Structure to design on (434 residues):
DNA sequence: CGGCCAAATGAACGACCGTTCAGGGGCAGT
DNA sequence: ACTGCCCCTGAACGGTCGTTCATTTGGCCG
């Protein structure tokens, strides 16, 4: 057995052969998203992506410098949008840190439910980018974590949050990481087919977060 | 530029050339763990693994049928051990669901802090296994989630837990998923070099979990 | 010392990779 | 009708992949 590309839960057929209607650069982005999400960056070939939108391998290089740049392009765009949405949600939520936290969770979780494919790729495939390109994605991640830490710090200062201690100290960064981990990975298992809606998910996670940080009612 | 394998945050040198002391099958397992964790299954070559323990490519096939079987072997062993530890911790914790939950979190989080490499591989590389082999890993995952759901159900029944609602219903499975997500992904960012110990992490996460499910004091 | 066999070697195989590039078709402006 | 430009094609390049296999090694038993 010398075959390669058994590839992530044996998805087989790219199927599509007819040319995508959209401008080619967007068709490529969309096809790449789908393929990366289903089978993972390193096993998806340039030929796979281009076949999926009805073109041939070489045409990719009229729109992107490399397969690596394509991945960075699609990750960076969704990551930037996410950062923008989070900032906006917090800014619009008023001064109460409880409202800020709830607004943040709502936006973050609902986006990770609705745009599962994009979130999945952005969070699972970063490691394949070369060092230069990965840096600004990580910066955006840190910025988002910073927003959460800021909300927690304000809540503690205002006497509205009473988060658990870690080794005697209040480690707000660890708590923010723990919360972000659970919000982010919703995209790994939530299915829109179930009986629970995105709205329900957002409220559930917001409740759990407020309880976890010891928010006063 | 036609090179391949820039490979996950540009780790370069396997370095080791001298033969590993241990019996070869264990040396191979150890080297594979390290390499898969650092760079990811699909970009780590058989040649990389064998060079890292001082052997040549062909020798792998005296011990494993394929690269795929090697991955399954190392994932299945740590997954099985994890399942066993979780069951044991819950069994030894007595009848109070609060103690059970705390004991579970303690074992689960501490293991994911201490054996970061193993946990990382087991959780990130599953997707590369073929359908047959991935099945029993998923069964073990479901079993572990089942333990958590069982603890929550008992806590609710005993009137000791008051978990948040999701869309009017109590969705214990969703809550268990959310909690397991945060416990599992500790292995992605916890570094033993920091000021916070594994013990602190276990307590922090146990506190957050008990608060999230509304445990009575 | 000779025979045995598990284990290791390293060349070889067939396949596929990301990327390049000469060639060509279609359509705007002149 | 001609030019120029954009975009696509598909063969080709140099390289790496997982796996196989004839051959060699090296330790143990008699």
């Amino acid at each position: 057995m010398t075959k390669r590309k058994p590839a992530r839960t044996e998805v087989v057929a790219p199927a599509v052969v007819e040319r995508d209607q959209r401008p080619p650069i967007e068709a490529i982005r969309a096809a790449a998203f789908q393929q990366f999400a289903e089978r993972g960056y390193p096993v998806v070939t340039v030929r796979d992506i281009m076949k999926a939108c009805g073109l041939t391998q070489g045409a990719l290089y009229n729109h992107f410098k490399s397969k690596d740049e394509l991945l960075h392009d699609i990750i960076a765009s969704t990551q930037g949008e996410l950062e923008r949405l989070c900032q906006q949600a917090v800014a619009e939520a008023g001064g109460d840190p409880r409202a800020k936290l709830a607004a943040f969770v709502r936006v973050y979780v609902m986006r990770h439910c609705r745009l599962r494919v994009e979130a999945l790729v952005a969070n699972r495939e970063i490691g394949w980018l070369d060092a230069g390109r990965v840096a600004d994605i990580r910066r955006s991640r840190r910025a988002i974590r910073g927003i959460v830490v800021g909300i927690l710090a304000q809540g503690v200062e205002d006497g509205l949050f009473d988060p658990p201690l870690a080794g005697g100290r209040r480690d707000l960064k660890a708590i923010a990481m723990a919360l972000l981990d659970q919000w982010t990975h919703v995209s790994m298992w939530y299915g829109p087919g179930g009986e629970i809606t995105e709205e329900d998910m957002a409220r559930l996670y917001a409740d759990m977060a407020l309880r976890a940080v010891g928010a006063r009612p």
